[in-house]
Write a structure and sequence with these properties.
10 helices; mainly alpha; about 210 residues
């Protein structure tokens, strides 16, 4: 093809792209992941029978707010990474770290105030063996849907983008898991919920360069 023909084709064949395609695509992926994770929760574990009473307790909403804050911050980071060359900014990273730091500081306070004989029980709870694995399992629908969404965008830092996608998936997995989990102590959340989120984050970092290459 001659250069003038190419220029003419590009000039006449352009179509206006949707300016909000990024938000729509990532939002749809998050919604699909939420539906998938909720369906998986109900089919595999069920929902706590005392959920109506639990909804009236402030501690439950603190429990939900912890992963929800991480989810919102990680989704913002992921959206930023979908734009080639866009800088993350220190503020986004601080917002991402704040919920974890807050839970850790509160957990340390609880452990210091608790009798030494009860401290290990506050950290382990009764489900520490399966908690993080359950979260990782529930993160799978969001993990796959977010990778699908990102493949239609233009990330350039593939390992970091994969890790961010994994963190979004892990955080949404925790949000859904709170509907089943019986653990109500912050030291438990600060250890096993965080590990549950880090598992898909690490997997996402490993798979990002392979699955997001374009």
């Amino acid at each position: 093809m001659k250069t003038p023909d190419l220029v003419s084709m590009l000039a006449t064949g352009t179509t206006r792209s949707d300016p909000d395609i990024l938000g729509k695509r990532l939002g749809l992926a998050l919604l699909i992941g939420l539906i998938g994770a909720s369906t998986l929760l109900v089919a595999t574990y069920g929902i706590r029978g005392d959920m109506p009473e639990l909804l009236a307790t402030p501690l439950f909403w603190i429990k939900v707010s912890f992963p929800l804050a991480i989810l919102m911050s990680a989704q913002g980071v992921t959206a930023r990474l979908a734009r080639p060359g866009a800088l993350l900014g220190l503020q986004r990273l601080i917002l991402l770290a704040l919920p974890v730091l807050a839970i850790w500081l509160a957990s340390i306070g609880f452990l210091l105030l608790a009798p030494p004989s009860l401290r290990l029980a506050l950290v382990l709870g009764s489900t520490w063996q399966v908690c993080s694995l359950n979260i990782a399992l529930l993160s799978l629908p969001t993990f796959f849907s977010m990778f699908w969404a990102m493949r239609g965008l233009a990330p350039t830092r593939l390992m970091l983008t994969g890790a961010s996608i994994g963190l979004v998936a892990g955080a949404q997995g925790v949000v859904v898991y709170t509907l089943y989990c019986t653990e109500m102590t912050m030291p438990f959340w600060g250890v096993w919920y965080v590990i549950g989120m880090l598992v898909p984050t690490a997997v996402g970092a490993l798979l990002g360069p392979r699955l997001l290459r374009w």
